């Protein structure tokens, strides 16, 4: 069966919770060791799919820092990113945190690129990367007020008007 059966009725809430977790654990054991699949192959493929977004995040950080600070800055940034304790501790675990890290990083980078250049293409890439970040984890919704506040403050301080939330299409720019 695709899901473990529900615990029996009539149990107190704590025993019901324990029975639910025990059933899920038993279902996981069945999936890994009694389904005929190789457990090592299953774990390896899950870990590779968790490591790929972390590598993409490192690549994005390198290119972002190289654009602003040159090659030495990019190498320092990717070295700091690769040596971050949270990345080292959780980068190989099959969860959505790596995907969230790369999509939030991409959203911030594309937002800053839109602020620098303006136009509809950077706005479209910012929207797509922000949508991807919001689709990976609900806590990425915190980017929305941050982006709006940054756009309003930059417009009020007389910084480049490309970041203004009221200027999306630009003045015929690409």
**Strand percentage, roughly?**
under 5%
The Rg value, from CA coordinates, equals 22 Å
* Count of DSSP H/I helices: 6
Q: Which ranges are low-confidence, i.e. pLDDT below 50, for 5 or more consecutive residues?
A: 165-174
How many beta strands in the DSSP annotation? Answer: 0
What percent of residues adopt helix (DSSP H or I)? over 70%
Question: Structural class given helices, strands, pairing?
Answer: mainly alpha
Largest sheet: none
Morphology: elongated
N- and C-termini, Cα separation? 53 Å
Question: Which terms would index this structure?
Answer:
71% helix, mainly alpha, 174 residues, 0% strand, 6 helices, single chain
Task: Tell me about this structure.
- The structure is a single chain.
- This protein is mainly alpha-helical and 174 residues long.
- Helices cover 71% and strands 0% of the residues.
- It is elongated, with a radius of gyration of 22 Å.
- The relative contact order is 0.08.
SSE diagram, text form:
Blueprint: H1 13-33, H2 39-82, H3 85-90, H4 97-117, H5 120-136, H6 143-156
Could you give a quick summary of the protein structure above?
The chain contains 6 helices and no strands.
